[in-house]
Amino acid sequence: MRLPAPRRYIARPMKRPLTHWSLLQTVGLLAILVLGGCSPPSAGNDSDIDLLTDPSLTINKDTNVFYAGILVTLAEGTTLDSIWAEMYLASGALADSLGTDSLQAAVSLKDDATGGDILLGDGIYAATFASPLPPGTGGTVRFDINALVSGDLTTLTDTLALQNLRPVILSVSAGDTLIVPPDGSTFVTLDTLRVEVSDPDGLEDIKGVSFTSVKPDGTLANSGQPIPLADNGDLTGWGDAAIEDGIYSIIIGIVDSTTAGTYTYRFVATDLSFNTSDTTFHTVVVTQ
User: Fold this and answer.
1) Bridge-based pairing state of the strands 280-287 and 177-179
2) Which of 176, 180, 212, 276 measures 20 to 30 Å from 89, CA to CA?
3) Within 13 Å of residue 84, how many CA atoms lie on the same side as its CB?
4) Which domain covers residue 194, as residue numbers?
C-alpha cells in the first residue's frame, strides 16, 4: 500500500507591535552585524534534507514482476536531472555462479503515473519491470537507487529477499555392511556418514543436517531424537574434511552390544526458514 507524501508545515512568526525595547534590540543587532562582520542567523540548512527516503521494493511472485519506488525530497534551488534503479544479485545459488556484482536490470523511475508509478507528482518515483531472473530464483537482490540532482549523484542501497526455496540433499555416503565386534571386545567398528547438500538460496541458508536411525525392531535409536551432522572441518572428531563446503559428516560407532540386523537411516536438511528437504534413505546391514 502506497502512503501519501508527508505534509510540510512552515512555522510563521506571530505579528506584534514593535515596542521601544524591541526597537532597541533591533538596532543593537544591526550594530553587532555591522561592527562584527557577522552573518544574520540562518533559518535552516537545506543540506540537512534527506534526498532519498522510504524505499519500497517488492516482487509479485505470481507475475514475476518487480516494483521499485523511492520518495524524493529536493532542496530549494535544486533540480532532479535523472533517477534510476539498478538491480544486482546479492545472494543465492545464481549469485554464487554469476557473482554478487552481476547487474541484472536498470530502469528509470518516474513520478508521472506511468510505468508502475501510481500518483502524479506525489514525490514518489517508481517503476515496475519483468524479472530477468529464472522463475523460482531464491536468495536476495540488491537495489542501488541513483539520483542525479543538479549534477551531483546520490545513491541509496536496499535489498529484497526473494522466495526461500527448500534445501536439497545431493548424495549420501555411508557403509552398506558393518560388523559387530565380539562380545567383551573393546574394539569399535567406525563408519563415517557424509551428506552433500545444496540450497538455491546459498549454503549459508542451511541451518543443519540430521538423521534418525530405525533399528531392526522398528524402534528409533537415540530415543527418536535427530542426530546432527557437522560441516565444521573437524576430521578427527566428526569425519568432516572441509569447513562450510556443503558436506555434513558424523562418525558413528558399532560396539559389541549393538543389535545385528538392518538399520534404515533417514537424512533431512533444514534451512534458516525451517524449510526441509525431501528425506533421503540409506540402509545398512549390521552383522555378527
Assistant:
1) parallel
2) 276
3) 8
4) 168-287
Alpha carbons within 13 A on the beta-carbon side of 197: 33
C-alpha cell at 46: 537545506
Residue with cell 519500497: 56
What Cα–Cα distance (Å) separates residue 286 from each residue in 189, 193, 250, 255, 281?
Answer: 10, 15, 18, 11, 16
Does 117 share its domain with 194?
A: no
Min mean pLDDT across 43-47, 121-125, 260-264 is at 43-47
The verdict on 136 and 239 lying in the same domain is no
Q: Read out DSSP for 14-73?
A: PP----HHHHHHHHHHHHHHHHH-PPPPPS--GGGS-SEEEEEEEEETTTTEEEEEEEE-
**For residues 246-275, b (16+ Cβ closer than 10 Å) or e, as one string?**
bbbbbbbebeeebeeeebebebbbbbebeb
Give pLDDT tens digits for 88-139. Answer: 999 888 888 898 889 999 999 999 999 999 999 999 999 999 999 988 788 8
How long a stretch of residues is the chain? 288
Residue holding cell 502506497? 2
Same domain, 280 and 176: yes
Q: What is the pLDDT of residues 147-206, one digit of tens each?
A: 999 999 999 999 998 877 889 999 999 999 999 999 888 899 999 999 999 988 788 889
